[in-house]
Amino acid sequence: QLPAGSLQLTLYQYKTCPFCSKVRAFLDYHGLPYEIVEVNPIMRKEIKFSSYRKVPILLANAGSPLQLNDSSVIISAIKTYLISRRNSLEEIVSFYPPVKTMTEQGKEVLEYENKYWLMLDEKETKRVYPVKEVRVEEMKWRKWADDWLVHLISPNVYRTPKEALASFDYIVREGKFGTLEGLFAKYVGAVAMFFVSKRLKKRHQLRDDVREDLYEAANEWVKAVGKNRLFMGGNQPNLADLAVYGVLRVMEGLEAFDDMMVHTNIQPWYQRMEEVIQK
Ligand SMILES: N[C@@H](CCC(=O)N[C@@H](CS)C(=O)NCC(=O)O)C(=O)O
């Protein structure tokens, strides 16, 4: 583990963004201190310094300043750095190069190679992943959190006009908005996202009742963890536990979250996650 104070971290985020929440869950669980810069989602002045236009962005200083983009790259790179001090953080980050790819919709996007892979040597791998299967499983479910679970959020939290308004009320309350801006964002945002969420529902082929997909996902996760361990990582969460928890957490306080707690088996695992992260 790191000697205290040797990694200076600044997280640029929207508080209610699932990718940012995932990074916070990871940093909090590992006891890494960091500063937060809440980004105003309308002007995004705070991240004008960056050519990468999304959040989260993590500025890391382990001797020299370095910008890390993409939640899964951030998590894999820092985790690698915590386990193995063979390479500088800069070298580790270079193992996750951005590549241009096409989405199914024909849109050009940046993806990061190897983003679920920790850059460990044989000895470190044995220590962290005593059997190969747990490494494969962790990667599979981290990817599932990014590629499936996150897509269930918008259709669920903007499902009805009332829910869309409640969601935006929460986003504005938690986020960084000017007074007028916030009022504007709340009503215009809620109406816009109500319609956008219908499009997202179609794009990701969710069922008509989007709750069904959310419940199924939650139960699928609980089933994957199984009855014989507290977390997917065993007695302690692994990166998949942290990812799933980080994503689901952004729905806290909203109807979709309460419904999920009532109608699925996820609560005991979720509470265990809350406990280990608060510690
Ligand atoms: N793959 C990225 C996705 C990040 C992302 O989509 N962030 C959203 C906020 S939830 C964003 O910044 N969107 C602004 C934009 O796309 O212009 C990650 O895992 O960090």
UniProtKB/TrEMBL annotation:
PANTHER family: MICROSOMAL PROSTAGLANDIN E SYNTHASE-2, PROSTAGLANDIN E SYNTHASE 2. It catalyses: prostaglandin H2 = (12S)-hydroxy-(5Z,8E,10E)-heptadecatrienoate + malonaldehyde; prostaglandin H2 = prostaglandin E2. Pfam families: GST_C_2, GST_N_3. It is found in: Endomembrane system. One of its GO terms (biological process) is prostaglandin biosynthetic process. Pathway: Lipid metabolism; prostaglandin biosynthesis. The lineage of its organism: Eukaryota, Metazoa, Chordata, Craniata, Vertebrata. Keywords: Fatty acid biosynthesis, Fatty acid metabolism, Isomerase, Lipid biosynthesis, Lipid metabolism, Membrane, Prostaglandin biosynthesis, Prostaglandin metabolism, Transmembrane, Transmembrane helix. Belongs to the GST superfamily. Residues 170-279 form the GST C-terminal domain. InterPro entries: GLR_AS, Glutathione-S-Trfase_C-like, Glutathione-S-Trfase_C_sf, Glutathione_S-Trfase, Glutathione_S-Trfase_N, PGES2, PGES2_C, Thioredoxin-like_sf. GO terms for cellular component: endomembrane system; mitochondrion. This is Prostaglandin E synthase 2.
